[in-house]
Amino acid sequence: MTTEPAIALPPDWRTRLQAWASQDAELIEAATWFDGAVLLELGESVAWLKIYAGRVIDVRDSAAVFGYTFALRGPAAVWQVLLVDPHASVHQLVLLGKLRVDGNQLEFSRLSKLVAVLVRGLRAVRAS
């Protein structure tokens, strides 16, 4: 049995992502009319983000009992490429089947800008 390689993120990446999100005007705008939860599954690393009225109001290291609106899942190696390559597109990786969306597909599509901005936030957290 092989262990999946870890993604190069700081141990407190979830709280850093939440802090970054609270300062990012583009994310606040993209999430203004969203009341839901996003689950990011980066290989074995998980972040559950509760988003309300443009703010990430809660972050957890596993899916909350309330579930999620949609989840974005993929192997650590794919997420590593996404976080390192500024030209890599989360939506292209979904279309290619390298990342998987579970839950409300319509909300994922409607919130494509939010998803792209969250990836930008993960890149910023990784670089810090």
Describe the structure.
With 128 residues, this protein is of the alpha+beta class. It contains six helices and five strands, in the order ααββββααβαα. Strands 3-2-1-4-5 form a five-stranded mixed β-sheet. The radius of gyration is 13 Å and the shape is globular. The termini are far apart.
Features:
128 residues, five-stranded mixed sheet, alpha+beta, globular
Q: Residue share in helices?
A: 40-55%
Terminal residue distance:
33 Å
- In total, the number of strands is 5
User: Which spans have pLDDT < 50 for at least 5 consecutive residues?
Assistant: none
Shape assignment: globular
Q: Averaged pLDDT, please?
A: 92
Order of H and E elements: HHEEEEHHEHH
How much of the polypeptide forms β-strand, as a percent range? Answer: 15-25%
